[in-house]
Amino acid sequence: MPKMTVRVILKSGVEFSIKCDKFTLTRNGFQQVTGYNIEGITENKPVYLDFEQVAAVVRVFSDEKEVAHE
After folding, report:
1. Are 23 and 59 in contact (CB under 8 A)?
2. What own/partner pairs with CB < 8 Å and gap ≥ 24 does 19-27 have?
3. What is the pLDDT of residue 63?
4. What is the model's pTM?
5. What's the pLDDT tens digit per position in 1-47?
6. What is the three-state SS of the chain?
C-alpha cells in the first residue's frame, strides 16, 4: 500500500507535507480538532503542531497511486 500524503496549511500561509501510513484527528464535543495521531511516518514528522494556527489539513490522493506489479 502506498504512503498517504497529508498537507498541513497554516494560517500564516506556510505549508508542509507529511508522508505516512495513517493520519487521524481527535475532536472535542464541538468538533474542534484537539490532537492528532500519525503512524508510519517517512517524511516530515511534526514534533509539535498548534491547531490554533492550522487553516487546513488536506489529504493528497494523487500521490497514492498503486505501483503495478509485473
Report:
1. yes
2. 19/43, 19/44, 19/63, 23/59, 25/57
3. 77
4. 0.77
5. 688 999 999 999 999 999 999 999 999 999 988 888 999 999 999 88
6. CCCEEEEEEECCCCEEEEEECEEEEEECCCCCEEEEEEECCCECCCCCCCHHHEEEEEEEHHHCCCCCCC
